[in-house]
Design brief:
145 residues, alpha+beta, Aminopeptidase, 4 helices, 7 strands
Length: 145
């Protein structure tokens, strides 16, 4: 069984951070100082549980531009099951419920996972750039009622 919850308790936030450490810090060699920031306190965090065990995470926050989707991560042994897509769809819905006036969603995609976001309707804009020593592409989605 798969469920997505908003991570609110200290234990749930620790589970979110544990996934991010395993994916971004250990696998992708990002510095912890680049992975964890003051924006964690502003963002809404989500945790995907597979049979009650943490498998994926993501966060969003409202900015001056719109809703920024960030830190989508799936544990290595849970990949290939569509969890990242489920997480992004869930975040989009939660953001729409929380901020119904917002219709502009954006993210910074690692170049290798751009097809995932494109399949959800995100479109690339601007030039590629380096973030945490990884090539990224800005992508946006406009949702109209």
């Amino acid at each position: 069984m798969v469920e997505i919850i908003q991570a609110k308790s200290l234990e749930e936030i620790h589970q979110v951070f544990d996934i991010r450490i395993k994916v971004f810090v250990v696998e992708q060699a990002c510095l912890p100082s680049e992975e964890f920031d003051e924006l964690d306190a502003q963002a809404q965090h989500y945790l995907l549980l597979e049979d009650g065990k943490p498998a994926a995470t993501g966060r969003f926050r409202k900015t001056e531009k719109g809703i920024k989707v960030e830190r989508i991560a799936t544990l290595a042994d849970a990949r290939g099951k569509g969890f990242a897509s489920q997480m992004v769809r869930h975040i989009l819905q939660e953001a729409r419920n929380t901020y119904p006036e917002c219709t502009y969603f954006y993210l910074h995609s690692q170049q290798t996972v751009m097809p995932l976001y494109a399949s959800l309707g995100f479109v690339p804009y601007g030039e590629t750039f380096i973030e945490a020593d990884i090539v990224h592409q800005a992508m946006a989605l406009i949702i109209s009622d």
